[in-house]
Design brief:
Belongs to the isocitrate and isopropylmalate dehydrogenases family. LeuB type 1 subfamily. One of its GO terms (cellular component) is cytosol. Catalyzes the oxidation of 3-carboxy-2-hydroxy-4-methylpentanoate (3-isopropylmalate) to 3-carboxy-4-methyl-2-oxopentanoate. The product decarboxylates to 4-methyl-2 oxopentanoate. Its cofactor is Mg(2+); Mn(2+). The protein is α/β, with parallel strands linked by helices and 359 residues long. It folds into 2 domains: 1-102 and 264-359, Isopropylmalate Dehydrogenase, CATH 3.40.718.10; 119-257, Isopropylmalate Dehydrogenase, CATH 3.40.718.10. 42% of the residues lie in helices and 17% in strands. It contains 12 helices and 12 strands. The strands form 2 sheets. It has a 10-stranded mixed beta sheet, with helices on both faces. It has a two-stranded antiparallel ribbon with strand order 6-7. β11 (267-269) and β12 (275-277) form a beta hairpin. α8 (223-232) runs parallel beside α9. It starts with a strand and ends with a helix. Bound molecules: 1,4-dihydronicotinamide adenine dinucleotide, 2-OXO-4-methylpentanoic acid and magnesium ion (MG). Magnesium ion (MG) is lined by residues 248, 252.
Amino acid sequence: MFKIAVLPGDGIGPEVMEETLKVLAAAQEKFSFELACTNADVGGIAIDRHGQALPEATLELCEKSDAILFGSVGGPKWESLPPARQPERGALLPLRKNFNLFCNLRPAKVFPALAGASPLHPDIVGQGFDILCVRELTGDIYFGQPKGREGSGPDERAFDTMVYTRREIERIARSAFEAARLRNHRVTSVDKANVLTTMVLWREVVVETARQYPDVTLNHIYVDNATMQLVKNPHQFDVLLCGNMFGDIISDECAMITGSMGLLPSASISESGFGLYEPAGGSAPDIAGQGIANPIAQILSAAMMLRYSLDRGDAADAIDVAVARVLEEGVRTPDIAAGGPAVSTREMGDAVVRALHDA
Ligand SMILES: NC(=O)C1=CN([C@@H]2O[C@H](COP(=O)(O)OP(=O)(O)OC[C@H]3O[C@@H](n4cnc5c(N)ncnc54)[C@H](O)[C@@H]3O)[C@@H](O)[C@H]2O)C=CC1
Ligand SMILES: CC(C)CC(=O)C(=O)O
Ligand SMILES: [Mg+2]
């Protein structure tokens, strides 16, 4: 029996999580394993109910669990709080740091059935789009100290610190090279070494680490060029190795190239293999509460959890296949329907459950 901490969070989080738990229940029945799922509050809802974004009880539950299934946090309601108390900085970043979840895997692939939903030219999509973003998740400018604001009037200043240690770069580079060995043996490291000292070290360490992976081809690209090449010639990329901020930005671009923010899952993993699994997108306040969010990113994140933390690759594969089948059948939430007929979040969840049963 595996213990799962389920943290739906805010906005569309609870809506897509409900569908994901249905899919997990179907997977347990089909593959005869047991998950003990326990819900806990995180993010804005936790601020409202308990006065803090990451209550002690939620952290304790996560510590006692085999994996964390996370929805998303944040929204306009909490934006006026002091930054450190807001859902993102008060819950999500501390969770990532506390569990040392340094390696964020974001696999972005255009499903054949959704080629038409990609904003890329059909000729480019036709060459295939299948990229793994390996994003460092516990360092960089999001965590570097000092951060702050000081002064007032026109001289008021605000600052963040971009910092990486050799150790941090080496371990994420290793993750990227190892991942590339299971794919097409190509890593492109994304940096800004022409301007940022942090990124000069990044490139040096990536080059040094690459010597231990002679079977993997390493290229380097500046982040501005990378965003452009992703649109122009994405076929050149296999594994994209990125720091925290560049990976955050690039992975949203990758998600949209696959057709929607609601399609991109993610796994955030520590050196010990403990993981938090969440969609790459956020709480989508613009569509929250309408029952139209796409649950696929959350469902595929649960499949990643089964694969990476629970050693249930069989069930994970079956969920991946069920999602692909549902898309082949033409089931579409509004974000991928291109104005055509669309189903609700719940109907998409039901369709995946049905496809899983039938497989
Ligand atoms: N991991 C997390 O909890 C994250 C939280 N956030 C927070 O979420 C809030 C909203 O952030 P935004 O910048 O608007 O980014 P967002 O990712 O929530 O939304 C961007 C766009 O993608 C769409 N979208 C996202 N997920 C979707 C889904 N499953 N189905 C259909 N459409 C989907 C939204 O409707 C919106 O148009 C903010 O408070 C932000 O800080 C943002 C990113 C990650
Ligand atoms: C709080 C943010 C760093 C969350 C986010 O945008 C992400 O992880 O992709
Ligand atoms: Mg992001």
